[in-house]
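Hey, sorry for the delay on this. The queue was backed up all week. Below are the sequences that define the complex (chains, strands and the ligand SMILES where applicable).
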Amino acid sequence: MRDLVIVLTQKELKARYKHMKLGYLWSLGNPLAYGLIYWLVFKFVMKVKIEGFPLFLVSGLFPWQWFVNSIGVSANTFVGNASLIKKVNFPRNLLSLVVSTQDLIHFLAALPIIFGFMLIYQKPFSPLLLVGVPALAMIQLLYTYSLGLIVSTVNIFFRDAERLIGIFITFLFYLTPIVYNLDMVPEEFRKYVILNPLAPLILNWRGLFLEGNLNGSWLILSMGYGLAFFLMGQWIYKKLSWRFAEVL
Amino acid sequence: MAICGGSVNKVAIEFKAVSKEYPLYSHLAGGLKGFIFNFPRSLKGITRERFTALKDISFSIHQGETVAFMGRNGAGKSTTLGLMAGVLKPSSGQVMISGRVSPLLELGGGFHSDLTGRENIRLNGVLLGLTRKQVEAREAEIIEFSELGEFIDQPIRMYSSGMLSRLGFSVVAHLEPEILLIDEILAVGDIQFQEKCKKKIQEFKKNGVTIILVSHSIGDVRALCDRVIWIENHIVRNDGPTSEVLPQYEQFFS
Ligand SMILES: Nc1ncnc2c1ncn2[C@@H]1O[C@H](COP(=O)(O)OP(=O)(O)O)[C@@H](O)[C@H]1O
Ligand SMILES: [Mg+2]
């Protein structure tokens, strides 16, 4: 089983990036490029006043990038492995696990960039990082694995799901406090922002990097969302996985 | 039913009243959008419209038997092999398998077109349940058997169908399967490689591997198989020793 995971991971990396180093550079370059654009637009055009804005952006954009990468790629997880699925019986959700774990690793490998920004803006390295990063990373893995599993399963049956998800993701980006702060949202709407499952997670990531603290109720809320996604994903997968080979 | 290899052998594959229906997936062609906009009709499509690929099929195959599945295109042979490989589930009835099943060897083989032949070998091996070490130990042998030479490090997207079959057969043949499923691939390679495969199959027979072969070649079936299961119109039309079933099959189609 361990060897199967290793070989599948190698295969996914190869299929996605053709080259591992390029994949890593991509996972760094993409959020940095977006960071630069948002910084230019929001700082100089819209004159947003947030102290240490580049660090603020980067600490939300990197987790976001991980999320989007995982979900975007997962549309292809099963469809792209059709010949494998049609020939051999193995736990198909391993493929989803492999895909989401890869993006986790890319995220962890990109952490030094965030730390670099923390140094530039003279933010202290709180010991809470040692607990907070693994905890939030695990919760986010639960999100990406589960939602990825759902997306990849649905995309087998409805090939246009991929495009709908693309549109949905764009909405989600602006509904999540990434380029803005929760304080900037009018008071009466703040409680609705938290209804977006990504919000408590991203807010905690940013709180962790900027202030070295974790919000307990957001943490529990995101765990709850993660667990709900997981149960939903496993249920859909269980119901439909044996039909994969028929439809592909 | 005469069983070659003696009745002491255990049952490797057993089908008990197996039926397989496919929903007509045509209502999915319109995508999610189409599905939702025609919801009542889509739902009816999923639940009502079905296509029967296999109807109430029963047989048992013992360890070490070499069995040919014959019949027209669309009769249900590949579906039968898919059920054996465990990638399909029967709609009713029971499929019982004991032993390590090889990945289905079918046309357009290979697992991922971006991977090289060598990487496909590794993936194939671990999917069969071997460790990476075990696969690596056999790699040289596999590559030699496949005669793919330097193409082994090219992505398999560049392979011809004959080369894909070479790769597929070579891998599976060297990874000690207990049950081998071969769906029409013997016919694509060049004659020289076909002969080599047949020799390998003979070798497997001696070692007690259970071999399931889908083929339209009377000659191959006569040379390799002890038993023929003839599927016609989604049911078993005839099942027995090659010497009995093959002449009837030939006569029917001449
Ligand atoms: N995935 C599928 N979805 C719907 N129908 C299928 C599917 N696979 C096969 N069929 C149908 O089932 C029947 C049997 O197919 P198959 O087992 O591939 O036949 P054979 O291998 O004997 O040519 C065919 O009529 C085919 O159209
Ligand atoms: Mg067929």
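Chain A is about 75% helix and 0% strand.

I'll add it to the shared folder too.

S.
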